[in-house]
Design a protein that fits this description.
The chain is α+β, with helices and mostly antiparallel strands. It has two domains: 2-281, ATPase, nucleotide binding domain (Nucleotidyltransferase, domain 5, 2-Layer Sandwich), CATH 3.30.420.40; 288-463 and 498-532, Nucleotidyltransferase, domain 5 (2-Layer Sandwich), CATH 3.30.420.40. Bound molecules: D-xylulose (XUL).
């Protein structure tokens, strides 16, 4: 029998712009990585950033055949690089969330009998009823969102069932739009997959179940019972339940790789396929988030995700089933005004220099002498407001701040918002809570100090360029032992950890505790102003 270190686990990530793969050994060390960039390596599909933005600017799709061809390509690349597929004990993967794939009637039959002499792309030419899959960047289904919310008794009620109010990119609303605009294609469809479960289906040689975690991004699943909500299904499209199949736990072993992969690439017959999930749930696994932790990704848009036990869905942010622990949940909040706003204020108030920005942060005390700012250069998602708002220590609106105060107000405002919204979704700081910071701005120590002070928790940094992919490899490994009661954290305890960057300054909670409440009030006021 092969020693543990001879074993290997694969994680794939079908993201918007590329397909990635990472292999880890039994000690969780990365042994192989590869990728296929859609725009560059598959130019025949003519995508930009992996997608086609349609004329209405709202419809955004990706060619499903491009994803299939990318899988052919990446496996060929691995073979050429001498990758030994016979050591793969299990594989899993992630996909961009919300995107959907429409399998034509008869496709299951085809999937079950793939000829190992041919590539997947040629074998699956006629397997899809819709060639252009709607993806997460699509925002063309507002009408369907309104219908769904009113059918279930309002946005709040929908969030109480599915973990989120109706969002254009969420799959149910995309399916409803396809049913309305292309009823023939809808009727020709045998199965609807998410990008994640579509990719798992290719490996399995059969339709793979949608996992609970990615299934939470559809506005169709009851996140508490983990079953499709009949009310949502009925409001979306006919015969939908049979087209979706039953959802499955994210840690489930769905079966072994199909004969096709055994014959064509030399995978062992016993190589297991562990349910694929969404890229954000995959990242939660890759970052090895634990109960009480909060991950803050400071990029073009800022994303916050949390591990929570007692979720309280609201009309802001999303609650998903947790991808590694069946009793927990994860919350996700997206902010559009991230790096671009920080860069604008840096340019206007610090002559374009991050050192100047940092100096300004250090020159004003924690709490900014009571000054608070809200900076939404473009319409924010959480909350849906736009504009720049400044308030002095008496909570009166003012038109300007000094440059130093402006810089601190921006950074404090962004982090206060994150803590306020996280708490609204059920987040609690508990002993041992860590803030895991990633993304471009996480290399700035002074920004991280504010983050640590506002959350009153130590901040760790972690390189997550490949977190979803790595998380999938970890999940593949965990999937083999999850049924025996081994927790995810136990299974991956040997993986490299996050680095401690900073701890809260003394007195931080006394300063930011009251400011949090003030910030929440001001945000409500801003929203009220917007509605008038
Ligand atoms: C999350 C979302 C995006 C995609 C990106 O709700 O829409 O983060 O998952 O791939």
């Amino acid at each position: 029998m092969a020693a543990l270190t001879d074993s290997c686990y694969l994680g794939f990530d079908f993201s918007t712009q590329q397909l990635k793969v990472v292999a880890i050994d039994g000690d969780l060390q990365v042994t192989h990585q590869s990728n296929v960039q859609f725009d560059i390596e598959l130019p025949e599909f003519k995508t930009q950033g992996g997608v086609h933005i349609h004329e209405d600017k709202l419809t955004v799709t990706s060619p499903v055949h491009m994803w299939v061809k990318a899988l052919d390509l990446i496996l060929e690349k691995m073979k050429r690089a001498g990758f030994d597929f016979s050591r793969v004990k299990a594989l899993s993967g992630s996909g961009q969330q919300h995107g959907s794939v429409y399998w034509r009637k008869g496709a299951r039959q085809l999937l079950q009998h793939l000829d190992p002499e041919k590539n997947l792309h040629s074998l699956l030419q006629d397997s899809f009823s819709i060639h252009n899959s709607p993806v997460w960047m699509d925002s063309s289904s507002s009408e369907q969102c309104q219908c769904l919310e009113s059918a279930v008794g309002g946005a709040h009620h929908l969030a109480d069932i599915t973990g989120s109010r109706a969002y254009e990119r969420f799959t149910g609303n995309q399916i409803a739009k396809i049913h309305k605009s292309q009823p023939d294609k809808y009727n020709e469809t045998e199965r609807i997959s998410l990008v994640s479960s579509f990719a798992a289906s290719l490996f399995l040689g059969d339709y793979a179940a949608i996992d609970y975690s990615d299934g939470s991004g559809m506005n169709l699943m009851n996140i508490f019972t983990k079953q499709w909500s009949q009310q949502c299904l009925q409001a979306t499209a006919p015969q939908l339940e049979e087209k979706l199949g039953d959802p499955a736990p994210s840690t489930a072993v769905l079966g072994s790789v199909s004969h096709y992969f055994v014959k064509r690439f030399g995978f062992p017959e016993v190589c297991k396929v562990v349910a694929f999930t969404g890229d954000n749930p995959g990242s939660l696994a890759g970052m090895r988030l634990q109960e009480g932790d909060i991950a803050v990704s400071l990029g073009t848009s800022d994303t916050v995700f949390l591990w929570i036990k007692e979720p309280r869905p609201t009309v802001e942010g999303h609650i998903f089933c947790n991808p590694v622990d069946g009793l927990s949940y994860m919350a996700l909040i997206c902010y559009k005004n991230g790096s671009l706003t920080r860069e604008r204020i840096r340019n206007e108030c610090a002559g374009g220099s991050w050192e100047g920005f940092s100096r300004a942060l250090r020159s004003v005390p924690m709490g900014n002498n009571g000054n608070i700012g809200i900076y939404f250069d473009t319409k924010e998602i959480t909350p849906p407001a736009v504009g720049i708002y400044r308030f002095n220590q008496y909570l009166q609106k003012v038109t300007t701040f000094t440059q130093e105060v402006e810089i601190r107000a921006l950074v404090e405002g962004q982090f206060l918002a994150k803590r306020v919204h996280a708490q609204k979704l059920g987040y609690k700081i508990i002993p041992g809570t860590r803030v895991l910071a990633t993304g471009g701005a996480s290399s700035n120590k002074d920004i991280l100090q504010v983050l640590s002070d506002v959350f009153n928790a130590p901040v760790y940094t972690i390189d997550v360029a490949n977190s979803a992919c790595l998380g999938s490899a970890y999940r593949a490994m965990h999937g083999l032992v999850a049924g025996m009661g081994v927790s995810f954290s136990e299974a991956v305890r040997k993986a490299p950890g996050a680095q401690l960057a900073t701890t809260p300054s003394p007195g931080a909670e006394e300063v930011y505790g009251p400011l949090l409440m003030k910030y929440a009030e001001l945000e409500k006021e801003v929203l009220k102003d917007m509605k008038q």
